[in-house]
Amino acid sequence: MKEYEILDVHAVEVLDSRGIPTLDVTVTLKDGVTGSISVPSGLSGKRHEAYELRDGDKRHYGNGVEQAVTNVNTRIADKIIGMNVLEQVKIDRLLVKADGTDNKRKYGANAILGVSLACARAAANAMGIPLYRYIGGTNTKRLPIPMVNMLNGGKYTDNIMDIQEFMIVPVGADCFSHGLDMCCEIFHSLKGLLKDNKFSLGIGEEGGFTPDIASASDAFDILLEAVEKSGYRPGDDICFAIDVAASQLYDDNTELYYFPGESYMCGKEIYRNAEEMVQYYEDIVNRYPVCSIEDGLGDDDIKGWKLLTYRLGDRIQLVGDALFATNTEKITEGIDNNIANAVIIKPGQIGTLTETLEAVEFSKCAGYKPIISHRYGETEDSFIADLAVAVNSGHIKAGAPCRSDRVAKYNRLLKIEEELGKDSEY
Ligand code: PGA
Ligand code: ZN
Known about the structure:
Blueprint: E1 6-15, E2 21-29, E3 34-38, H1 66-80, H2 88-99, H3 109-127, H4 131-136, E4 145-152, E5 165-169, H5 176-196, H6 216-229, E6 239-243, E7 250-251, E8 256-258, H7 260-266, E9 271-272, H8 274-287, E10 290-294, H9 302-312, E11 317-320, H10 328-337, E12 342-345, H11 347-350, H12 353-365, E13 369-373, H13 383-390, E14 395-399, H14 404-420
Parallel strand pairs: 4-14, 6-10, 10-11, 11-12, 12-13, 13-14
Antiparallel strand pairs: 1-2, 2-3, 4-5, 5-6, 7-8, 8-9
The structure holds 2-phosphoglycolic acid and zinc ion.
2-phosphoglycolic acid (PGA) binds near residues 245, 321, 346 and 375.
């Protein structure tokens, strides 16, 4: 087993898609085989997530990751050099134990994740098999349906769109590549329509357009037009999905959701309580072919989530992102409370591959659909594409067909589809 022995672990600081530092980690095995990974990064401060270690000094306005890099190159390397890279669970458990904190704040979840994922890639390379097959085994065959970003808004975009993401889902496609073709065509039709209507053609971090469209119905109307202009049937070929990121709209004190863009457009303050939020979504689902709502309510608004699930859980996918944070304990709470019915899976939210796979397995066992997802700050790394296939996840969220950091995932899936050939499912 000498060829699988870890000889070296080395991290360097690189940049993510936003120009913010992140780690690139390489694991080298005794026979010279390597595996590398660039770590993606989310928006700051989601409360249930593992801790991303940042330097907090003058460089990069505190966002440097030199301490995390040093942790990989010294403390973590000391622990895992000499281990068998095929023992992913053992490596991950050791990293979690050595860190010893409840949210990986000692080494940094970004440091731990980089090592964990780089080990998996090195192991796949050493065995000479694709990453998806190494992680997923023999039964790996399903290409995910992409949930493709079209419009970007929310707290971290400077337009007046209150909802963070509007996506399209090619439910009528017969294979992944066909679905992706449809989404790209619609993306370009949308660009033309935005241009004709004198909206900005600027794009957001996830590659979607960021026009000043405040109301959800105006956004859906232009999406409908784009779908039809491309020759597809809304509801049959294409459904819509939104990520509201409602924790960002929620005020803990008043227990109300504030819509700044809509307020600006209407000239009066628009607040909604949980009941009104659910009504708002019901109206949307009645009027448009919406098949999925992510983070429709705040991550601590359990009462609201119960109501939402009661009213819409049988009709559409209700997805927990901030709500579950890829954390098995949080998913258990959700299942016990009977809230949501699908789970966003981001390895960085929890910090190791083993825990990510546990979250997927756990969700599936409870009948909750796992959706493998990118992050705001991405890299050119396409690990999540392989992961989505490995776990037969059914869905992937990887942004718009725009910007190399987002397209890298789709391109990897195209290659996997080609590789699996006739044996692939969709
Ligand atoms: P993240 O957010 O980049 O912080 O993970 C993206 C999302 O809300 O889906
Ligand atoms: Zn989200």
